[in-house]
């Protein structure tokens, strides 16, 4: 281009950064691919419904606790007795800043996390294979593992945006509504939330990337993902609660397995979980660990065998 | 280059105003082929406008296409593909209408008369080329036997009869292109919309395709061919429609379009034994805007209005008995014309 | 050269010849083609029928999807078969939990315990007898222990009722867990979703829709052809799959199929119409369908009042409840669930399917797809 020589560009004299940092641009591009879609934001908004219920429930609880002198209080068009309202929010819905609150929040987010990840899987990895953009990544001086780690990092962001981050906001909110000592006394909960989030991040991101690498098209990806996180829970519930099979069949429910481990992270006793018949925490941990390892092995084999063809 | 057009020159000013490129009104000086002017157009764009949200895809385009080949050229984003999609009924105009043999292009009756070779490269990859073309024929309503017969004939026409049994997945780009043209021809449409038909075709194949297109045009078909291969397009036809910024910037033969570009004088290389004397004489001519002395007894003349300039040049040469051993127009090609019409956008010349 | 106002006309029959002057194509072939092609006629009806057949075959090409669907069917059939063979479908093998002393007797281990007591509780332990053994014991008791005839008759009646209840519990459990929970709750929507969204969504994702949209067929008819092509697959999988699951489910499964297959048929057609419409409206139709099936239907389905009447699954279940009313199968809380009659459910499903189909045809006929290339 004749004009370029007039611009007096100097050659870049910087130092190239390590190849490990190539994970970040891969993740950034993947995040942008999702964030630019309105559908993602619609699903995220649906996913935040539960968070808002918890969030405003805690505010309602804090307010109701100041109204105990009143016989009834008015919430919109509804009248309620403050004592009963406080009991409902604290004891029934467990909006009491204990591990119950965060455990329940993680549990209820399961559906939307699963749906968002189903969409993410087909877009983040499936599109690269389907539309032939993978060669652009692999023609750069980055390893194939860096590509995969970048994708896992992007998936991790989605998971944490829907689970860990809102849970931490609820934690901070409760502490601000309650007292400063809450933050000190509930440090274990804070770490438990982080631990639960980390567990979900590692397991789900590996499983999703492995599934998306195997099934590149949207519908098969969704069928497989829903089988893992919808069908198996239904099957587990049918076998254990319906036909009274051994509680170990509940291990089929991967979200429940993560729930058991998260429960342990939050320092909650297992017998507080309903239904009561649950496998042991270590069994759930072993299963999730084995699955994650299988996914890693599969990805390793898949990376070696990948052929960039039409 | 300084603008040598004298502001006082009334013709220059009028011509600048009447220049075809980027005017609010399509004040182009078209031509009409008298012998076919009475025939109804096969493809008609009538004040067609199409928006993609806030972005305008095509802007007030009026175009009539009759039997023959029309090249559609323009830079990326000019609106060529949008125009073709409007003609094939994939898009509907927001204003105006698109008609194929009197039918609205959006309606299915019009698609019977249109054969479309898109620029997409996505097929039913598990099918063979033969199966694909036959399927397209069956989807046009032909019986199985008829579809098979047509398929074999069109495959032979595009030179794919031997390889058509292989799966599309294993085809090269050129082979896929041939299959696209074959499925466009299989139902014998009157109008052929070909988006980059020469893309990926080897040079020998290109010659075959060009010959095929000419034959089809001879048989009364209307072909609208878009291409970036301007040299090939020049070999195929000199009727072009130039698009720029969602408008038709110019329509007609290359020579006619060239004539209209008064603000871009024609550059002519003249080789003579007496370059200086000739240069002096040329400068006296009213249509000559400038003369450069070149190397090896050659001069480069910049002149407007070539139709008037060349006879005057001939008269001058005979009168003064100049010895002219070389005469060549330097920017009469489609590349140059396109470059002038598209303003600052460069048109990269290959090869 | 003349200006003609605002009209620009280009035309001409001039045929250019390349610089080499050679025409290496086969001219006679082109001329022959021209004359032979002109003589034949086409039929839009023939084209449409072929389109239906073509789309039907294309559905099978989505191999991964078909294999996953079949794998799911195999899995659930195996599970149901094994559970049935083990005799675990009914309540016969369930056992009492005796907590004794100061704790209330709990029939179901999952049932919530009563108010706490101050004395240290005696740990619960399972009674050795199962329900079936208990019922058998109740039947034997009048003969083993002398008792007045009236007491013996009462004991016999209770034992007989218990036996019948246990026998019927098989159908009840099969209906509640296998049919309502597993099949209607997951398999029916997912099998319908997979084929219905793949019909148009697969074409859009593969960017091959342009080939259909440039054929001389009305766009609404293309949409209709796609629907008729996907329906056999969805029906075969849903009805056939349901038949297979019920076939391995013992007599309770056979009864369930006899009673519930019309509801499965109606639900499949309605779901397919809905998901096919999503394929026309949305690029990622499978995700939208997923949100509808497993988020909205779940939430709406558990809402009290009339909100749940928006969901197709509600009417499918109502048809099933109506069919099995004589066998004691009903919603857990009918006063909250508020089921509708079979006639109403059929009407709604039929209207919904027809309405969604018509809406889909209109949408598809009017939509300009930007993602064709």
Overview of the molecule:
The complex is a heterotrimer of chains A (310), B (351) and C (373). Chain A is mainly alpha-helical and 310 residues long. Chain A has 13 helices and 2 strands. Chain A has a two-stranded antiparallel ribbon. Chain B has 351 residues and is an alpha/beta fold. Among the domains of chain B are: 10-113 and 189-259, Rossmann fold; 265-330, Alpha-Beta Plaits (2-Layer Sandwich). In chain B, strand 1 and strand 2 form a beta hairpin. Mean pLDDT of chain B is 80; it is low at 1-36 and 345-351. By secondary structure, chain C is mainly alpha-helical. Chain C has 2 domains: 46-89 and 170-372, no CATH class; 95-163, no CATH class. Chain C is 67% helix and 3% strand. Chain C contains 12 helices and 3 strands; from the N terminus they run βαααββααααααααα. The two termini of chain C are 40 Å apart. Chains B and C meet through strand 2, strand 3, helix 3, helix 4 and helix 5 of B and strand 1, helix 1, helix 2 and helix 6 of C. Strand 2 of chain B pairs parallel with strand 1 (9-10) of chain C.
Structure classification of chain B? alpha/beta
Q: How would the global form of chain B be characterised?
A: elongated
Number of helices of chain B: 12
Spatial order of strands in the largest sheet of chain B: 6-7-8-3-9-10
**CATH homologous superfamily assignment of the domain at 10-113 and 189-259 in chain B:** P-loop containing nucleotide triphosphate hydrolases
Describe this protein with a few key phrases.
heterotrimer; A: 310 residues; mainly alpha; two-stranded antiparallel ribbon; 2 strands; globular; C: 373 residues; 2 domains; 12 helices; 3 strands; 67% helix; 3% strand; disordered N terminus
């Amino acid at each position: 281009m004749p004009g370029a020589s007039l611009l007096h560009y100097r050659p870049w004299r910087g130092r190239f950064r390590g190849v490990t940092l190539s994970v970040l641009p891969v993740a950034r591009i993947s995040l942008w691919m999702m964030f630019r879609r309105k559908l993602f934001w619609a699903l995220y908004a649906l996913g935040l419904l539960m968070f808002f219920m918890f969030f405003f429930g805690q505010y309602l609880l804090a307010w109701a606790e100041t109204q105990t002198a009143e016989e009834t209080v008015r919430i919109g068009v509804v009248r309620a007795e403050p004592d009963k309202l406080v009991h409902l929010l604290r004891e029934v819905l467990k909006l009491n800043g204990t591990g119950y609150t965060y455990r329940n929040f993680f549990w209820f987010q399961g559906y939307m996390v699963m749906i968002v990840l189903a969409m993410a899987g087909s877009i983040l990895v499936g599109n690269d294979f389907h539309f032939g953009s993978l060669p652009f990544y692999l023609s750069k001086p980055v390893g194939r593992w860096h590509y995969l780690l970048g994708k896992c990092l992007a998936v991790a962001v989605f998971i944490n945006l829907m689970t860990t981050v809102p849970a931490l906001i609820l934690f901070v909110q409760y502490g601000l509504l309650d007292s400063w000592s809450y933050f000190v006394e509930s440090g274990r909960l804070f770490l438990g939330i982080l631990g639960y989030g980390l567990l979900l991040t590692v397991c789900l991101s590996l499983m999703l990337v492995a599934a998306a690498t195997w099934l590149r098209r949207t519908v098969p990806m969704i069928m497989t993902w829903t089988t893992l996180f919808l069908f198996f829970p239904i099957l587990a519930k049918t076998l254990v609660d319906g036909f009274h099979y051994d509680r170990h069949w509940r291990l089929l429910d991967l979200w429940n397995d993560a729930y058991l481990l998260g429960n342990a992270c939050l320092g909650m006793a297992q017998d507080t979980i309903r239904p009561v018949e649950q496998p042991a925490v270590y069994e759930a941990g072993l299963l999730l660990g084995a699955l994650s390892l299988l996914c890693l092995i599969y990805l390793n084999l898949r990376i070696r065998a990948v052929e960039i063809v039409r | 280059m300084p603008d040598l057009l004298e502001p006082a020159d009334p013709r220059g000013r009028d011509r600048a105003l009447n220049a075809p490129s980027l005017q609010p009104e399509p004040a182009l000086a078209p031509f009409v082929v008298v012998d076919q002017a009475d025939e109804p157009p096969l493809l008609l764009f009538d004040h067609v406008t199409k928006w993609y949200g806030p972005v305008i895809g095509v802007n007030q385009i009026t175009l009539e296409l009759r039997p023959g080949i029309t090249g559609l050229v323009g830079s990326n984003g000019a609106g060529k593909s949008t125009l073709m999609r409007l003609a094939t009924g994939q898009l509907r105009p927001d204003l105006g209408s698109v008609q194929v043999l009197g039918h609205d292009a959006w309606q299915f009756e019009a698609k019977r008369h249109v054969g479309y070779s898109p620029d997409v490269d996505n097929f039913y990859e598990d099918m063979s080329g033969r199966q694909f073309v036959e399927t397209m024929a069956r989807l046009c309503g032909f019986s199985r036997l008829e579809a098979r017969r047509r398929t074999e004939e069109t495959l032979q026409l595009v030179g794919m009869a031997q390889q058509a049994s292989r799966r599309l997945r294993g085809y090269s780009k050129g082979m896929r292109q041939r299959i696209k043209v074959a499925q466009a021809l299989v139902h014998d449409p009157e109008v052929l919309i070909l988006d980059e038909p020469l893309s990926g075709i080897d040079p020998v194949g290109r010659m075959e395709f060009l010959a095929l297109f000419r034959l089809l045009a001879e048989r009364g078909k209307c072909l609208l061919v878009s291409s970036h291969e301007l040299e090939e397009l020049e070999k195929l036809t000199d009727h072009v429609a130039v698009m720029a910024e969602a408008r038709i910037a110019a329509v007609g033969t290359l020579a006619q379009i060239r004539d209209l570009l008064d603000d871009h004088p024609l550059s002519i290389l003249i080789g003579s034994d007496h370059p200086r004397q000739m240069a002096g004489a040329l400068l006296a001519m009213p249509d000559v805007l400038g003369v450069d002395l070149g190397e090896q007894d050659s001069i480069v003349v910049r002149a407007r209005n070539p139709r008037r300039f060349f006879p005057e040049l001939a008269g001058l040469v005979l009168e003064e008995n100049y010895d002219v051993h070389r005469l060549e127009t330097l920017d009469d090609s489609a590349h140059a014309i396109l470059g002038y019409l598209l303003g600052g956008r460069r048109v990269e010349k290959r090869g | 050269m003349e200006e003609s106002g605002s009209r620009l006309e280009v035309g001409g029959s001039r045929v250019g010849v390349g610089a080499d002057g050679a025409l290496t194509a086969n001219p006679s072939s082109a001329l022959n083609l021209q004359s032979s092609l002109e003589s034949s006629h086409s039929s839009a009806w023939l084209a449409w029928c072929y389109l239906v057949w073509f789309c039907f075959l294309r559905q099978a090409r989505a191999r991964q999807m078909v294999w996953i669907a079949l794998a799911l069917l195999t899995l659930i059939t195996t599970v149901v078969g094994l559970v049935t063979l083990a005799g675990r479908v009914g309540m016969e093998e369930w056992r009492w939990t005796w907590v004794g002393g100061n704790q209330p007797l709990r029939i179901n281990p999952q049932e919530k315990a009563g108010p706490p007591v101050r004395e240290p509780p005696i740990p619960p332990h399972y009674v050795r007898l199962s329900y079936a053994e208990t019922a058998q014991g109740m039947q034997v008791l009048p003969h083993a222990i002398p008792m007045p005839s009236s007491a013996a008759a009462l004991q016999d009646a209770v034992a007989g009722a218990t036996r019948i209840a246990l026998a019927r519990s098989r159908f009840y459990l099969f209906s509640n867990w296998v049919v309502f929970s597993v099949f209607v709750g997951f398999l029916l929507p997912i099998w319908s979703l997979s084929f219905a969204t793949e019909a148009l969504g697969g074409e859009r994702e593969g960017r091959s829709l342009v080939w259909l949209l440039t054929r001389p067929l009305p766009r609404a008819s293309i949409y209709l052809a796609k629907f008729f092509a996907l329906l056999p697959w969805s029906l075969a999988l849903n009805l056939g799959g349901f038949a297979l699951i019920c076939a391995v489910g013992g007599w309770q499964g056979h009864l369930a199929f006899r009673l519930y297959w019309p509801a499965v048929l109606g639900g499949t057609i309605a779901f397919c119409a809905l998901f096919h419409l999503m394929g026309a409206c949305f690029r990622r139709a499978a995700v939208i369908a997923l949100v509808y099936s497993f988020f909205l239907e779940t939430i709406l389905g558990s809402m009290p009042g009339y909100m749940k009447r928006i969901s197709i699954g509600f009417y499918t279940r109502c048809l099933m409840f109506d069919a099995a009313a004589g066998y004691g199968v009903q919603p857990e809380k009918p006063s909250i669930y508020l089921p509708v009659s079979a006639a109403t459910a059929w009407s709604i499903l039929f209207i919904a399917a027809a309405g969604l189909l018509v809406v889909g045809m209109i949408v598809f006929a009017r939509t300009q797809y930007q993602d064709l290339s």
